[in-house]
Amino acid sequence: MRLGIAISGVGSNMLALAQACRDGRIPADIALVASDRNDAPGLVRATELGLPTATIARNRDETRDQHDARLRAAFESNGVDCIALAGYMRILSADFVAAYAGRLLNIHPSLLPRHKGLHTHRAALAAHDREHGATVHFVTPDLDGGPAVLQGIVPVLPDDDEQALAARVQRCEHTLYPTVVEWFTRGRLRCDAAGRPILDGELLTVPRVIRFDAEGIRRD
Asked: Would you call 108 a catalytic residue per the annotation?
């Protein structure tokens, strides 16, 4: 399978996926790492790994649909079968999402449906949540609302600030995303005709869960 990855920043989840591909855990080749920013540090890191990259920045005079059509063309010209959004900070158009329905994944830094959108760690602290984490889900036109596949849960500690909590969540993300992409590329995970996730032949009515301790070590 040929995997496309979209980033906007450092690309730490992109690196976790690339490592899993190199190790053979994910039976896929990374066909393209695309970014909407030409200064995204993740592009440099992808180039250092020998991965093909492209910058698809949005021009001032184009609509979201026009920009996403160029992004789609870049993935299609590289033969991409499925796409992992890894810190991609633009909202995708409905046409783009429809074109990759059931083949478009995202990782969001909260326990969805809690804390959609930006600044999720700040929101978790403000809400005095005792647990926080990340969710891997299929993408739909509903922002951060697609069906969840896997969640990683971490504790919120009494002395946490936003940076400490973000670092703990990010460590769990680097386990979650390769796990789900492996399931997908091995044919264990798919969406049915209604867009519902099926894992190992069973309908996922609630996401699977992995719990981590304060050091980012799996507890199960």
From this structure: yes
- CA 203 – CA 194 distance, rounded (Å): 11
Return d(Cα 196, Cα 115) in angstroms, integer: 22
Taking only the tens place, the pLDDT of each residue in 29-42 is 999 999 999 999 99
The catalytic residue among 67, 108, 137, 174 is 108
Collapsed DSSP state (helix, strand, coil) of residue 162:
helix
Structural contact between residues 160 and 125, judged by C-beta atoms closer than 8 angstroms = yes
Q: Is pLDDT at 220 greater than 80 in this prediction?
A: no
The residue type found at 55 is: T
Helices (H) and strands (E) in the chain, counts: 6, 11
The tokens describing 125, both together, are 């602290």
Is the Cβ–Cβ distance between 92 and 139 less than 8 Å?
yes
The pTM (predicted TM-score) of the whole model is 0.97
Residues 12, 170, 27, 21, CA torsion sign: positive
- Among residues 175, 185, 182, the alpha carbon closest in space to that of 154 is found at 175
Token duo for residue 145: 């609302």
Neighbours of 207 (CB within 10 A): 20
Q: With cut-offs at 50, 70 and 90, classify the pLDDT of residue 117.
A: very high
Neighbours of 54 (CB within 10 A): 17
Write down the H helix ranges in the chain: 12-23, 41-48, 64-77, 94-99, 120-126, 162-185
